[in-house]
């Protein structure tokens, strides 16, 4: 196979050298150029025709976000944002993913080692295979009607490419949506920014989950990440359980951890699995479906990376499939279906 052609864009020559050294060590990847400004990046895109780009969030003259907006209008391509963990950097990175960037990685902290770049090569390689500028992602969004009789709890898991998907799904939810828990693979500071961005954009109340929060209609709770998984606890009056534990299925927060914690209440659950790299969520979705939950997978045609839904489907965990523009309404419809049995 031909190597994946990568363009590195960062205003710091030191950071460009670091990214180059990490990516060049992976035989799947070939660095075809570097750029220190948006203008240089524009010229490099036209000259080298890369398969994927790493893009700094904060750059002089024209920000990485402004450049990304122009790029997606005129020459859409896979982009991985590279961000510091400042509040502004995290905010802009989340906005970038909502307008088309495939994923985001955090820059190493000064003197803190290179742990944050440990999966950089895999992220860039996966992004190069991503679908960008799918016209089905840009359709008009309509909010579902309120005052529906929701009988079930909604669980959503996603990873690469799911920031935009989750935003579009929640924009279809009414203010009195079913209780909804979301696990999205991102570093904790990005998840803070993600929740803060979503809350004013959608009708339900969106927040990071806090330990002990009751599951109530109109509430969307996002896994805070860091040291914790977002799980469910309780017998009949279900609550958030922030579980401090090791990674599950290679991730923390883990979709599998959330899904598996809900298995004993499966008949009350609807689980949706979105675009993402890897297999997190597949085992948990299979266990939920086997125990009586309703399950939904995002269609291959509308996934940015068809990894997590594909594996869940192959394992038999996906009962039904939906395109992204129908995913929110389908979840709501499934949450209205009667609960035939209760397992405590």
Structure, described:
Residues 5-122 form the Response regulatory domain. It is a single chain. With 344 residues, the chain is an alpha/beta fold. It folds into 2 domains: 4-133, Rossmann fold; 137-336, Rossmann fold (3-Layer(aba) Sandwich), CATH 3.40.50.180. The chain has 11 helices and 14 strands. It has a 7-stranded parallel sheet, sandwiched between helices. Strand 6 (153-158), helix 6 (162-170) and strand 7 (180-184) form a beta-alpha-beta unit. Helix 9 (282-290) crosses helix 10. The longest helix is centred in the last third of the chain and has 13 residues, at 324-336. The termini are far apart.
> Which overall shape is indicated by the principal axes computed on the Cα atoms?
elongated
CATH architecture of the largest domain: 3-Layer(aba) Sandwich
Largest sheet report: 7 strands, parallel
- Note poorly predicted spans: none
Subcellular location: Cytoplasm
Catalytic activity: [protein]-L-glutamate 5-O-methyl ester + H2O = L-glutamyl-[protein] + methanol + H(+); L-glutaminyl-[protein] + H2O = L-glutamyl-[protein] + NH4(+)
EC number: 3.1.1.61, 3.5.1.44
Family: Belongs to the CheB family.
């Amino acid at each position: 196979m031909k190597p994946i052609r990568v363009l590195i864009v960062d205003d710091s020559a030191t950071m460009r050298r670091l990214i180059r050294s990490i990516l060049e060590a992976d035989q799947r990847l070939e660095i075809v150029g570097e750029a220190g400004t948006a203008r240089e990046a524009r010229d490099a895109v036209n000259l080298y025709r890369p398969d994927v780009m790493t893009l700094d969030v904060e750059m002089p003259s024209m920000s990485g976000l402004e450049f990304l907006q122009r790029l997606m209008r005129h020459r859409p391509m896979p982009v991985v944002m590279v961000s510091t963990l400042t509040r502004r950097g995290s905010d802009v990175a989340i906005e970038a993913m909502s307008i088309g960037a495939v994923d985001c990685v955090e820059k190493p902290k000064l003197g803190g080692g290179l742990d944050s770049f440990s999966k950089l090569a895999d992220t860039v390689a996966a992004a190069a295979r991503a679908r960008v500028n799918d016209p089905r992602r840009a359709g008009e969004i309509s909010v579902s009607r309120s005052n529906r009789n929701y009988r079930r709890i909604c669980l959503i898991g996603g990873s690469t490419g799911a920031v935009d998907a989750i935003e579009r799904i929640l924009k279809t939810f009414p203010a009195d949506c079913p209780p909804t828990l979301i696990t999205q693979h991102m570093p904790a500071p990005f998840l803070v920014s993600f929740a803060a961005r979503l809350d004013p954009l959608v009708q339900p109340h969106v927040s990071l989950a806090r330990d002990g929060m009751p599951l109530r209609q109109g509430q969307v709770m996002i896994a805070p990440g860091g040291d914790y998984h977002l799980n469910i606890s309780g017998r009949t009056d279900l609550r958030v359980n922030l579980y401090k534990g090791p990674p599950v299925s290679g991730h923390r927060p883990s979709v599998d951890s959330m899904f598996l914690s809900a298995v004993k209440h499966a008949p009350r659950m609807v689980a949706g699995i979105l675009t993402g790299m890897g297999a997190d969520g597949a085992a948990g979705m299979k266990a939920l479906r086997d125990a009586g939950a309703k399950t939904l997978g995002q269609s291959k045609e509308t996934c940015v990376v068809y990894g997590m839904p594909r594996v869940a489907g192959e394992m038999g965990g996906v009962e039904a499939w939906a395109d992204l523009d129908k995913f929110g309404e389908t979840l709501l419809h499934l949450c209205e279906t009667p609960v035939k049995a209760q397992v405590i």
